[in-house]
Design brief:
This protein is of the alpha/beta class. The chain has two domains: about 1-115 and about 300-359, 3-Layer(aba) Sandwich (Rossmann fold), CATH 3.40.50.300; about 125-295, Glutathione S-transferase Yfyf (Class Pi), Chain A, domain 2. It contains twelve helices and 15 strands. The protein has helices at about 35-50, 55-60, 105-110, 130-145, 145-165, 170-175, 180-210, 230-235, 240-245, 265-270, 270-295, 310-325, and strands spanning about 1-10, 15-20, 25-30, 65-75, 80-90, 95, 100, 115, 215-220, 255-260, 265, 300, 325-330, 345-350, 355-359. The strands form three sheets. Strands 2-1-4-5-6-7 form a six-stranded antiparallel β-sheet. Helix 5 packs across helix 7 and helix 11 (about 270-295) runs parallel beside helix 12. It binds adenosine-5'-triphosphate (ATP) and magnesium ion. Adenosine-5'-triphosphate binds near residues 12, 13 and 59.
């Protein structure tokens, strides 16, 4: 899917903006505080119905207004165009897709999958496992449509088991939840492992061929000791679970190890390398999504120049070009990248909340 038209009203300093992006490259240039990240935030809202900067809607609605709206037309160029609209007040969120009100964000995400690479992206390496699980599950969710339900079922049972643990019931009552938990954990584990097996070679290839990093690797940690089967791990941790009132083992504790030259990327890679590693991870997901489902996933790159020297900026641009998907790139100066070799591009200038396409 590509975003073929975008209108934004009252999102931060973007009071009334309309653009017709290129289905391929879109370069958004403007000084600090002009509204570039806000424009990406508007696009992100169309795919996720939430911001990547804050969970507080009050912060993204223009201070002088009560609500914001973002409207988009999405489709492949020759396809039928589908309207999507988000209306967000301080209290209420309305999502309309193809003239139908949606209750679930997940349906929206399936229609307009999006990836974002921004100056905070490298933090996925240093933040808790939750953020890396979130990265992994984004991909699994998009290619395995039964994954979300398995995850919801697993979480439901996990909550019951944790409640039993907290109420000092007998081992038998706690164990009564285990069968269902194990069954759902198996499904989740199966999907995640299968997905990662397909993702790893693509990630390593992008690292090697685009970013000159030969020794990248990614490995799944299921959330319990690898040498054990899950049912044994649950049994072995029962006493510990009872003492702390929650379940220590399971897919809710899984993680991924991201390494360079056999060392954790967080400790070994420079900041610029970290950005490239995360970029390779995200682009690998975009490539795999296209391979498995035929879907094009637009990529938002906020402040492309941050942390990257000229050579790596050019490499990132090349990697984005190779993907063949729609791209939105923001930067403060046009001269930071050489776009000469890029076809199907449009450039937009942002100035104090207004956006103009430039020839
Ligand atoms: N709720 C709001 N209402 C009105 N203006 C806001 C609101 N939230 C933020 N702003 C302002 O919107 C402007 C645009 O912010 P934005 O982060 O999009 O800038 P930017 O172009 O990405 O800048 P930079 O290059 O520094 O990253 C800023 O001046 C900011 O203070
Ligand atoms: Mg910004």
């Amino acid at each position: 899917m590509s975003l073929l038209k975008l209108s934004v009203n009252n999102l931060r300093n973007l009071k009334d903006v309309e653009i017709k992006p290129s289905p391929r490259f879109n370069l958004i240039v403007g000084p600090n505080a002009s509204g570039k990240t806000s424009l990406l935030e508007a696009i992100y809202l169309l795919g996720f119905a939430k911001s990547f900067r804050t969970s507080n809607p009050k912060k993204i609605i223009n201070h002088q207004q009560d609500e914001l709206t973002v409207f988009g037309q999405i489709g492949q160029q020759s396809d039928r165009v589908m309207p999507v609209a988000i209306r967000r007040s301080r209290k209420e969120l309305q999502i309309k897709l193809d003239n139908r009100m949606l209750r679930k964000r997940s349906e929206l995400s399936l229609t307009l999958p999006l990836q974002i690479i921004n100056p905070e992206s490298h933090r996925i390496l240093e933040l808790g496992p939750k953020f890396r699980r979130h990265y992994l599950d984004w991909g699994v969710f998009h290619v395995e449509h039964r994954f979300l339900q398995a995850w919801k079922d697993y979480f439901h049972i996990l909550k019951q088991r944790n409640a039993a643990l907290r109420h000092f019931v007998t081992n038998g009552i706690v164990r009564a939840w285990d069968e269902g938990l194990i069954e759902k954990a198996d499904v989740i584990n199966h999907y995640r492992c299968g997905y990662l097996q397909q993702l790893a070679p693509i990630f390593e290839k992008i690292g090697r061929e685009v970013f000159d990093m030969n020794t990248l690797s990614i490995e799944y940690r299921p959330g319990w000791p690898k040498e054990q089967i899950y049912s044994d791990a649950l049994n072995l941790s029962l006493e510990r679970d009872k003492a702390s009132g929650y379940t220590h083992c399971g897919p809710h504790r899984s993680d991924i190890d991201i390494k360079i030259a056999g060392q954790p990327a967080l400790e070994f890679a420079s900041r610029g390398q970290q950005k490239l590693i995360i970029t390779a991870l995200k682009l690998a997901q975009v490539a795999l999504l296209k391979e498995r489902t035929g879907k094009n996933c637009p990529v938002l790159v906020d402040d492309l120049a941050s942390e990257l020297d000229q050579k790596n900026r050019a490499k990132l641009l090349q990697a984005l070009d190779n993907l063949g998907t729609q791209v939105f790139i923001t930067m403060t100066e046009q001269s930071l990248v050489d776009m000469d070799g890029i076809r199907d591009k449009k450039m937009f200038h942002v100035k104090q909340g207004t956006i103009k396409e430039v020839a």
